[in-house]
Write a structure and sequence with these properties.
single chain, about 30% strand, alpha+beta, Nuclear Transport Factor 2, Chain: A, 6 strands, about 25% helix
């Protein structure tokens, strides 16, 4: 029995979403009864019909044109792929999955994202997508980080080049 390349299946799924902007093609990579969950905003869908409607009406055509991702790491298990990414874009359009109801701010965003993808019979059974919503809100100007234990773009930049102090939020008496 041939071994299925789960990473290649997920890469095709991402291509269908972000390059082809094709909801129907995206659904071809998914199982008979998938679910999609953007954890910080609780947006996604259960079952093929809900997910197709979400992809078609709220996702695949809503990303800023300059959206890009840099993979930090990928872990592939027997039936699961976990990608750690940095996603960058200019918030120049509504992005309902990340910022529901928030008008475009024109600000540049660099956001760490983790995607956990479970497979069933070679197709995507679920995607659980995680990011730090406070980090995103700081970058689009909706949260003032002053006095709060939150960070903005430095969070992503540090993953890419380790250029920031990792203990900057600790008080000097606890450091």
């Amino acid at each position: 029995m041939p071994v299925l390349d789960l990473g290649a299946v997920f890469d095709e799924h991402l291509r269908d979403e972000f390059e082809l902007h094709d909801a129907a093609a995206t659904m071809e990579t998914m199982s008979a009864d998938p679910h999609l969950y953007h954890a910080p905003t609780m947006i996604g869908g259960n079952g093929r019909n809900e997910i197709l409607a979400f992809y078609r009406d709220h996702f695949v055509n809503t990303w800023p044109k300059d959206t890009s991702t840099t993979r930090i790491s990928r872990t592939i298990g027997e039936d699961q792929v976990v990608d750690e990414l940095v996603m960058t874009f200019t918030h120049d359009t509504m992005i309902e999955a990340l910022l529901p109801g928030v008008a475009p701010t024109g600000r540049r965003v660099s956001l760490p994202v983790v995607v956990v993808v479970k497979f069933h019979e070679g197709k995507i059974a679920h995607e659980h997508i995680y990011w730090d919503q406070a980090c995103l809100l700081v970058q689009v100007g909706l949260l003032d980080p002053l006095g709060l234990p939150v960070t903005g773009a430095a969070q992503a930049q540090n993953l890419l080049d380790r250029s920031y102090a990792t203990n900057a939020l600790l008080s000097s008496k606890n450091a």
